[in-house]
TrEMBL record:
Originating species: Parnassius mnemosyne (clouded apollo)
Localization per Swiss-Prot or TrEMBL: Cytoplasm; Nucleus
Domain (DDE Tnp4) ranges: 137-286
Keyword Cytoplasm: yes
Protein's name in the database: Putative nuclease HARBI1
Principal location class: cytoplasm
Functional summary from the UniProt entry: Transposase-derived protein that may have nuclease activity. Does not have transposase activity.
């Protein structure tokens, strides 16, 4: 005989996660309850309830996305914890990422006023006495699932896995001031910078400082790279100071990926959602720095097994103007 007894709906039992203790909330979501409440406050008006079926509150939507990105567990586990289905978690993460990426200009921005630029320069100089630095630039590869569409092979980087090559400029506090997520893994760092809007702004004189980059970039009047073969004490001092100051962007990547394990282990959704999720994680990273969020220590030791060596970029020869400007800079500041 056919059993027509209705099964209990496990997806309708939901507990408000903000009723948890601070310690339990941090264990489940890797951030403080205060941080979660701040995100809910920013996104509440945009997280409209779905009128069909059982609606999800803004609180549930935010913590589903936060747990999925920060812990990078399978979505079924996040779904079971919050009394929803896996497809609901997937749609919720996509929705929250889209909203945060739309708001990114409020949280990810270069210093524009003279006072803001001078303060940024001052903080960079305090690291290794390298003057006039307004940002450290580099790229990092975020793994994505294999792309089978036409052009999918262009996502495969030099290490042989599919990725998005993400360009970031950070400040001395490790906050992300500029981010570009539209390039496939096979594209060289120098091309990404050459075709980005930030380069145009530097060429137009929008900033009073310079960027520091590695030898994967050409040396220009506004982007200084290390000397390939320093021969004088002044050049060696320049290189030592350059390396210590530019290292902020490497530390930024490490902190960002430690906070959001999805950036370490890879994105499994479609490419467009992956790009928006990367930007969303950058927004949350900046908010966490502003709110002095401690890094969750529960998985601190395991980060090494997911980190990889940077993909080595070929050396890019400096431009003539860049070489002259760097030489003058060394003679002025590193005597």
């Amino acid at each position: 005989m056919l059993d027509t007894t209705r099964r209990p709906d496990r997806h309708r039992h939901r507990v408000n996660p903000f009723e948890l203790s601070d310690e339990d909330f941090r264990y489940k979501y890797r951030f403080s309850k205060r941080f979660g409440e701040k995100i809910v406050g920013i996104l509440r008006e945009d997280l409209v309830h779905d009128p069909r079926g059982c609606p999800l509150s803004p609180e549930i939507q935010v913590v589903c996305a936060l747990r999925n990105w920060a812990r990078h567990e399978i979505q079924d586990d996040t779904a079971d914890l919050h009394g929803v289905s896996q497809p609901v978690v997937s749609r919720t993460c996509k929705k929250v990422a889209e909203i945060l990426s739309r708001k990114s200009r409020e949280f990810i921005k270069m210093p524009t006023t003279l006072n803001e630029q001078q303060e940024t320069i001052r903080k960079f100089r305090s690291i290794a006495n390298f003057p006039t630095v307004i940002g450290a630039i580099d790229c990092t590869h975020i793994r994505v699932k294999k792309v089978n569409a036409d052009g999918g092979q262009l996502y495969i980087n030099r290490k042989g896995f599919s990725s998005i090559n993400v360009q970031v400029v950070c400040d001395a506090d490790l906050k992300i001031m500029d981010i570009v997520t539209r390039w496939r893994g096979s594209v060289h760092d120098s091309r990404i910078f050459r075709e980005c809007r930030l380069k145009q702004r530097f060429e137009a004189g929008a900033f009073s400082g310079i960027l520091l980059g590695d030898s994967g970039y050409p040396c220009t009047p506004y982007l200084f790279t290390p000397l390939l073969n320093p021969t004088t004490p002044q050049e060696e001092r320049y290189n030592r100071s350059h390396i210590r100051t530019r290292n902020t962007v490497e530390r930024c990547f490490g902190l960002w990926k430690q906070r959001f394990r999805c950036l370490l282990r890879g994105m499994f959704g479609d490419i467009e959602t992956a790009k928006k999720t990367i930007v969303a994680c950058a927004v949350l990273h900046n908010m966490a720095i502003d709110m002095r969020e401690d890094v969750f220590s529960g998985e601190r030791d395991s980060i090494e097994q997911y980190s990889s060596e940077p993909i080595v970029q070929r050396y890019i020869a400096p431009s003539i103007r860049g070489n002259i400007r760097r030489r003058q800079f060394i003679e002025t500041h590193f005597q």
